[in-house]
């Protein structure tokens, strides 16, 4: 019998993986959250995970809600029973409430992860289809957790470091705990000094202006261009369609030196207007390429109906194509905005006056021995948060297209 197709083996494997993962993450969180060392004892988590994995395969609940409650409590008890020490073991009376809460959280994570991974398995031999589906689901869950961690951990470190003071950072750089007793003014001192002492608001406004202008110029040129490539017939159409991204084969570092020379002679260097010329030149090709595919998917019957009603091509683009292509346009606008907001190379080469620095250029100028590290982290947080909120707001436009039902039979 192939052991890898056994349901019990799958439950034990999932239990070992998920319990080890969440246990290790809990220890890391406790270390950086308290600044103290914690002995890593993986044995209790392994045994607990194997027991929970086996029980999830062996028993199927009738009432899922009650099963979840008892399952989490049972996982919590197992962790403390097998621990006999740090970080899950504790003595009564319970004076370390944060340890209990963190243990309950990791118990819930272990139980839910194992349940949703092996909930469909049976204790006997699985068919090849169900066995492969289980391992695919397990790998998908691990990959999702990994991607979340590589995004969340740096952002968490940035936020926690920005809320620390210089003395605590020098005393213990790994201590990312926050002392809320100091009050809001001292807690957010790094952010206050950025705007008061280093004039960070000017950097925000400069980046916002350049990014918005870049988005507008890119859309003004790429929307008609994408429509023409997708809907019209003209010489060299296929060649233009396939070669529009060739500009990305040329590294930006090669373009910087000749552009620097030309912009210096034209008086465009050290101006935001110069960046507003360079950025659209690099974003229009990819925006045109992205919009071309969406416009090509729009029904040609809509254009024909517009022409029969006496509309010109420009009116068709404005009144028909653009409203139907809002999701694609929103995604392109977000992509272009992120490029312009985070761009560093051209801003570093073209800008010399600190009053017109963009965010990326300004943060680099702060990187010196005179500027504390927590100020740099606060600047990084401020540079990241706007893009994050804009992405969350634009998400409603990115979920689905608006062409459903546009053509009636």
Describe the structure.
The chain starts with 6 loop residues before the first helix and ends in an 11-residue tail after the last helix. 29% of the residues are buried. It has helices at 7-34, 43-58, 64-83, 97-118, 128-162, 166-171, 184-187, 189-196, 200-231, 237-243, 252-266, 272-297, 300-308, 313-324, 326-342, 345-350, 359-366, 373-398. With 409 residues, the protein is an all-alpha fold. 73% of the residues lie in helices and 0% in strands. It has 18 helices and no strands. It folds into 2 domains: 3-171, no CATH class; 194-398, Orthogonal Bundle (MetI-like fold). The radius of gyration is 28 Å and the shape is flat.
The description of the largest β-sheet is: none
CATH topology of the largest domain: MetI-like fold
Number of domains: 2
Q: Overall 3D geometry?
A: flat
Mean pLDDT: 81
Could you give the count of β-strands? 0
DSSP strand content: under 5%
Reconstruct the topology from this structure.
Elements: H1 7-34, H2 43-58, H3 64-83, H4 97-118, H5 128-162, H6 166-171, H7 184-187, H8 189-196, H9 200-231, H10 237-243, H11 252-266, H12 272-297, H13 300-308, H14 313-324, H15 326-342, H16 345-350, H17 359-366, H18 373-398
Helix pairs in contact: 1-2, 1-4, 2-3, 2-4, 3-4, 5-18, 8-18, 9-12, 9-15, 12-15, 13-14, 15-18, 17-18
């Amino acid at each position: 019998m192939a052991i890898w197709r056994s349901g019990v083996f799958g439950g034990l494997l999932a239990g070992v993986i998920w319990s080890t993962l969440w246990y290790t993450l809990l220890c890391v969180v406790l270390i950086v959250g308290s600044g103290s060392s914690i002995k890593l004892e993986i044995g209790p988590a392994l045994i607990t995970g194997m027991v929970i994995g086996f029980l999830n395969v062996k028993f199927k609940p009738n009432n899922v809600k009650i099963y979840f409650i008892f399952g989490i409590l049972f996982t919590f008890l197992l962790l403390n029973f097998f621990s006999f020490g740090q970080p899950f073991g504790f003595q009564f009376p319970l004076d370390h409430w944060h340890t209990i809460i963190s243990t309950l959280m990791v118990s819930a994570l272990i139980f839910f992860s194992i349940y949703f991974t092996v909930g469909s398995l049976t204790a006997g031999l699985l068919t090849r289809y169900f066995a492969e589906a289980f391992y695919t689901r397990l790998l998908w869950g691990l990959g999702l957790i990994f991607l979340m961690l590589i995004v969340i951990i740096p952002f968490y470190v940035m936020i926690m470091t920005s809320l620390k003071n210089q003395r605590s950072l020098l005393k213990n750089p790994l201590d990312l705990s926050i002392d809320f007793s100091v009050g809001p003014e001292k807690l957010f001192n790094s952010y206050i000094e950025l705007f008061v002492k280093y004039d960070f608001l000017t950097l925000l406004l400069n980046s916002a202006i350049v990014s918005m202008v870049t988005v507008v110029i890119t859309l003004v040129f790429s929307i008609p261009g994408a429509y023409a490539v997708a809907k019209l017939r003209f010489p060299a159409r296929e060649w233009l369609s396939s070669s529009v991204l060739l500009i990305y084969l040329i590294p930006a570092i090669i373009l910087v030196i000749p552009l620097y020379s030309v912009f210096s002679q034209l008086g465009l260097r050290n101006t935001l207007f110069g960046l507003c010329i360079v950025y659209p030149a690099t974003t229009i090709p990819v925006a045109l390429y992205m919009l071309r595919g969406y416009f090509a998917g729009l029904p040609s019957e809509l254009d024909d109906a517009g022409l029969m009603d006496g509309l010109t091509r420009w009116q068709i683009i404005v009144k028909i194509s653009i409203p139907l292509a809002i999701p694609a346009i929103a995604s392109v606008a977000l992509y272009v905005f992120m490029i312009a907001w985070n761009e560093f190379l051209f801003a570093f080469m073209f800008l010399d006056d600190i009053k017109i620095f963009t965010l990326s250029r300004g943060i680099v100028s702060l990187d010196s021995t005179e500027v504390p590290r927590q100020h740099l982290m606060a600047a990084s947080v401020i540079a990241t948060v706007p893009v994050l909120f804009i992405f969350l707001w634009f998400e409603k436009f990115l979920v689905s297209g608006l062409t459903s039902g546009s053509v009636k039979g």
